[in-house]
Amino acid sequence: MANATIIQFNNVTKQYDNDPPVLDNVSFEIERGKFYTLLGPSGCGKTTILRLIAGFMEPSKGEIFFNGKKINQIPANKRQVNTVFQDYALFPHLNVFENVAFGLRIKKLKNAEIQAKVKEALSFVNLSGYENREIREMSGGQRQRVAIARAIVNEPEVILLDEPLSALDLKLRTEMQYELRELQRRLGITFIFVTHDQEEALAMSDEIFVINKGTIQQSGTPTDIYDEPINRFVADFIGESNIVSGKMKKDYLVEFVGREFDCVDMGFTPNEPVEIVIRPEDLEITSLERGKLQVKVDSQLFRGVHYEISCYDKDGNEWLVHSTKKANVGDQIGLYFDPEAIHVMRLGETEEEFDRRLETYADVDRHGK
Ligand SMILES: Nc1ncnc2c1ncn2[C@@H]1O[C@H](COP(=O)(O)OP(=O)(O)O)[C@@H](O)[C@H]1O
Ligand SMILES: [Mg+2]
């Protein structure tokens, strides 16, 4: 396909009155047929992005393109986009069939065509046979599926889903995560899914946009974002992290907690201040002598597969460890980690600068450092 880009935001800003912008100069591209997730805390601007794509509002500044055509002023009902809302917004007085058929009736399709399309949409979400049920007779998960059927029956190019799973209990939620992901694969439609739950985002997405305070902090695959967070916000928001301040002494040598450690990062100015991330699963419990850090075990929780162990060093920094081995609360232990486990983050680095820096590491790897 010549052009895989279906939606493009160019320097889009959304501002109400003289308040600070709720979206600030946001640019991104969405490729056709993928599962995207907008991830960020409440109030960061996720729903605003969906509303701009759906055509429920216009940007204050910037341009929005759909299939290469500027759509800033195109009304919602002329866009190839359907939204699944958080509360599903089903019509309580209509049965399942009529809820799904609603948009097709407005478009004045022939009855036979409506019958066929609704039947197919319901079968896609495993609700064949539920046509005549009232909405109030449906469970939370079933209502969710009706809402999805109502979106896919219009055969949109993009489906927007605004925190559709947040009202469900944990077990149903996990089931629906699989179902939604599976449905997206079968339909091949672009999904843009909103959540504030990082585990959900990691489990479901081809691409994640991590958003904070109206700007996209980082975009990438779940593994990119988990393994190489761009800054403290992303590292903290995605998964559990140990984050401390430090200094790059020179290439491949970093200082933190008052000591120097070999690392794999380069291209910083000498003594440049940085932030360090080490993931809890990259810390290994070992003897005091072999440990690169010496810590005291403060508390321990069993999490089913691993122990979550909280330790403190003598400066009072907390070190969280995920280990299949048990520790003893009160013990002095060593923590060992590989140079690769140290992830160095430059303060205030833009996503482009960050990506370029990572590419130079890949070059070094290829040429054998
Ligand atoms: N009509 C409005 N007028 C003023 N501020 C608004 C309006 N709608 C949303 N906001 C503000 O925009 C920000 C982003 O909102 P939203 O996109 O709904 O966040 P999210 O979906 O990430 O929780 C919030 O601070 C919210 O208060
Ligand atoms: Mg929202």
Automatic annotation (TrEMBL):
<keyword id="KW-0472">Membrane</keyword>
<dbReference type="GO" id="GO:0043190">
    <property type="term" value="C:ATP-binding cassette (ABC) transporter complex"/>
</dbReference>
<keyword id="KW-0547">Nucleotide-binding</keyword>
<dbReference type="InterPro" id="IPR017879">
    <property type="entry name" value="PotA_ATP-bd"/>
</dbReference>
<comment type="function">
    <text>Part of the ABC transporter complex PotABCD involved in spermidine/putrescine import. Responsible for energy coupling to the transport system.</text>
</comment>
<keyword id="KW-0813">Transport</keyword>
<dbReference type="InterPro" id="IPR005893">
    <property type="entry name" value="PotA-like"/>
</dbReference>
<comment type="similarity">
    <text>Belongs to the ABC transporter superfamily. Spermidine/putrescine importer (TC 3.A.1.11.1) family.</text>
</comment>
<dbReference type="Pfam" id="PF00005">
    <property type="entry name" value="ABC_tran"/>
</dbReference>
<dbReference type="InterPro" id="IPR017871">
    <property type="entry name" value="ABC_transporter-like_CS"/>
</dbReference>
<dbReference type="InterPro" id="IPR013611">
    <property type="entry name" value="Transp-assoc_OB_typ2"/>
</dbReference>
<dbReference type="GO" id="GO:0016887">
    <property type="term" value="F:ATP hydrolysis activity"/>
</dbReference>
<keyword id="KW-1003">Cell membrane</keyword>
<dbReference type="InterPro" id="IPR027417">
    <property type="entry name" value="P-loop_NTPase"/>
</dbReference>
<keyword id="KW-1278">Translocase</keyword>
<dbReference type="InterPro" id="IPR050093">
    <property type="entry name" value="ABC_SmlMolc_Importer"/>
</dbReference>
<dbReference type="InterPro" id="IPR003439">
    <property type="entry name" value="ABC_transporter-like_ATP-bd"/>
</dbReference>
<dbReference type="GO" id="GO:0015594">
    <property type="term" value="F:ABC-type putrescine transporter activity"/>
</dbReference>
<dbReference type="GO" id="GO:0005524">
    <property type="term" value="F:ATP binding"/>
</dbReference>
<dbReference type="InterPro" id="IPR008995">
    <property type="entry name" value="Mo/tungstate-bd_C_term_dom"/>
</dbReference>
<dbReference type="InterPro" id="IPR003593">
    <property type="entry name" value="AAA+_ATPase"/>
</dbReference>
<feature type="domain" description="ABC transporter">
    <location>
        <begin position="7"/>
        <end position="238"/>
    </location>
</feature>
<dbReference type="Pfam" id="PF08402">
    <property type="entry name" value="TOBE_2"/>
</dbReference>
<protein>
    <recommendedName>
        <fullName>Spermidine/putrescine import ATP-binding protein PotA</fullName>
        <ecNumber>7.6.2.11</ecNumber>
    </recommendedName>
</protein>
<comment type="subunit">
    <text>The complex is composed of two ATP-binding proteins (PotA), two transmembrane proteins (PotB and PotC) and a solute-binding protein (PotD).</text>
</comment>
<keyword id="KW-0067">ATP-binding</keyword>
